Amino acid sequence: MNRRRWLALPAVFALVVAACGGSTATTAPTTAPESQAAATEAPASASATTDPNATPIKLGFVTHVIGNPFIQQIIDGANAAAKDLNVDLQVTGPEGGDADAQLKAVQSLVAAGAQGIATSVPGESMASGLNDIIDSGVPIVQFNLLVTSVKAPYVGERSVESGRILGAKVLEKLGGESATGKVIIGNCFPGFPVLENRARGVQESLGKAAGIQILGPFDVKVAANENYAAWEALLSANPDAKALVGLCAPDIASLGKLQAANADKPFVSGGYDLTAENLAEIKAGTAYVSLGQTPFMQGYLPVKMLADKVRGLVDTDLSKGGFLDAGTEIVTADSVTEPYNLPPLTFAQLEELAASPEKTREYYQPLVDNQIANWTTLVEPIENESK
Q1: pLDDT at 41 (0 to 100)
Q2: Which of 121, 205, 216, 332 is most buried as measured by Cβ atoms within 10 A of its Cβ?
Q3: From CA 306, how far away is CA 304, in angstroms rounded?
Q4: CB atoms within 10 A of CB 193
Q5: Which fold has domain 159-292?
């Protein structure tokens, strides 16, 4: 069955649409010659009883920003799930973190027949509208950014613990608990709970060194040009800073370029996400460490959860919420640590994955076969996300 674009949103929402292509085939069981007569007497719909994905379903996938390389990695994971699970998937979102525009996008998808919605939730203002949709019988799964008052489960990292890991890696590079000097923290979306939790974890780890002076978190914006300018201003005001730590996807790319432009002001840089741009700065030695949050998991798993629920393959009540850990990846130029006992990766192999959705899909097959296939056993209380 060919999957196709099934919705065009009004231009007034200024939404950018990324539709997934490809097709999913249903293969009939092989029949031995002596049983051919019996096979021809079987109902035409017999294959549907053996393939739970035989009938296509319509799902929406809404992100808080379109065009960001990290968010695209999440979208790639969602598209992979759509291809595997025979889902007509509509991918959309605002150009830059507008919660009201994102809610309108969700509502438009539901009005057009979406049977389930996966969405990041960048603002509390979305909660009431999303809960109305859930109450109407359309299931929702949150990913990447959450609001705990939404009656839907969340797929993402353990945000505070992730910050602790990043802070510990930076502190280790600075000399451990005997380290001294200024460390600047930047947050591209102040107020977002996941990012505030990361900041709390980073500060907790850095606080183990009495000689470290923590500055920030400062608003460093999310657009690439604004992000670089914000970091440039912070370094100019603090040329003696020993480390600069960002909490968002654009930061490592900006910090790497900033270090290259200010070789006379060496600093340790840490941040998030394993985009090709970020890996290039780590490889060049202008950035030190970046943490991934397994974007494939954040894209694929919500689609799988919704598909299972819409098709009646699980009896899990998604409206009761819960937390599913996407896992944390830890990357320096010398080491790559992946979650869930995934196969070891070299830095060069990780670069290949960042540049190829197809290779990424192949690498994460064990995740699809195990954690994702058995997702109902992995649901934790939502409180565990921020412990």
Answers
A1: 35
A2: 121
A3: 6
A4: 17
A5: Rossmann fold (3.40.50)
